[in-house]
Design brief:
38% of the residues lie in helices and 18% in strands. With 482 residues, it is an alpha/beta fold. The chain has two domains: 44-233 and 392-481, 3-Layer(aba) Sandwich (Aminopeptidase), CATH 3.40.630; 235-384, Alpha-Beta Plaits. The strands form five sheets. The protein has a six-stranded mixed beta sheet with strand order 1-2-5-3-6-16, sandwiched between helices. A four-stranded mixed beta sheet has the order 15-8-7-17. The protein has a four-stranded antiparallel beta sheet with strand order 11-13-9-14. The chain is globular, with a radius of gyration of 26 Å. The mean pLDDT is 93. Bound molecules: zinc ion.
Amino acid sequence: MKSFAKGVLFLLLFLVAVLVIRTFFFSSRQQKFPAIEKVQVSDSVIQNLAAAVRFKTVSYENDSLRDTSVFSSFHKFLYQTYPLAFSTFVKENISSQSMLLRWDGSDASLKPVIFLSHQDVVPATDEGSKWTHVPFSGDVDAQFIYGRGTIDDKCGVLGLLEAAEYLLNKNVKPKRTIYFAFGHDEETKGSGAQEIARYLQKKNIEAEFILDEGGSITSGIIKEVKPDVALIGIAEKGRATVDLSVDIEGGHSSMPPKQTAIGVLSDAISKLEAHPFDARYDGGTKALFDYIAPEMNFVSKMIFANAWLFGPVIKKILSGKNSTNAAIRTTTAVTIFKGGEKENVLPTHASAVVNFRILPGETAEDVVNHVKNVVSDERVKIKLREGYDNPSAVSDEGSEFKLISKTIKETFPEVIVAPYLVVGATDARHYQKVSKNIYRFIPLVLNDEDLKRMHGLNERINIENYKDVVRFYMRMIENSAL
Ligand SMILES: [Zn+2]
């Protein structure tokens, strides 16, 4: 007995030693780079972005509502505002109102780099009434530029053009060819991005890397890490919508069967909500914690350093919040439910729509199989809608990732940089055949409040932050192409 107890004690001590040693070696992945001298960015960038916001380049779910003339005038505005850029760049022939600009480099043997952004914005519902500034006013005060599109994503289009115009003014000539691709319907179908990606593929162009929006600098959102954290999206989730329907004989409500169409469908929906997809701690989400956990306190660090043992605990913790839950599993969201016409008539038909966001590693086909297995009721028809997107590939944390990290640290010396999984969707997903190195980041400093402004009320950008966006793009162009 005594030797048994000794054995257990020895094993425990051994385990603790392994945990501690692994924690010790789970060291910071943050590299230090000397901060660069802050470029003086002219105040004209403020009025330029404000003016851009005033063009109502709205993408509606119903594409026939799109005001194409606004996009044309927006283009004219860009030509006038950035004369050097538009007289230097080759405007590639894209049939939609998306824009592909080519800045030729001197060394044709280098693969090009592509910077993405989008011209369109989501509608501003409740126009005016709940906004402190009218949504498309482009109002400016001492601290902010206000309006729809300031953070999503005209700061990207204008920021890139400001950076290019500035460098052209300094007579800078890139070695590597640079493309700027500005989609016109990122917020809906992304058909512009698809057209551009096909165009580049046809020309056999493979990009060294692609940088789109999709990650930002989070401030106070990851509570366990004190500094702001710059999140570079290395992958994004896919999406699929499934229609469920039940057709059953009707009749009078005075002699009902045990279940009506509504009851049958409700059961199916309850089952789906009760059986979420399995959680997985891998890919972009594991990469995120590999980068930020070393910056946390000892206990948190120990947990993430020993995911081999604490995997179930980690999944449990991350499942606890909607935002982190979305990062570790394919999510199920029942968004529409319809059934019944009249109080005394048994419904013959009920239907529901369920929207899934698919974790990299799974596919739309897996989603349909999951739904069939969980519902397991032949009375429920299950149909995958056309137009689904499988998740993106996961880009690595190699030299391109490091180059973006370096540029971030040069512009924002205090931040922690980390890769992560984007749970929304960006235009970048359409470019997968153009490059295997696709990253999603724009250096907007956003706290919890600011995140709600994106697609929400009172969208605005801090003026100093916008100037840093311009500086970041200048440096990104220099670091990648000069
Ligand atoms: Zn966007």
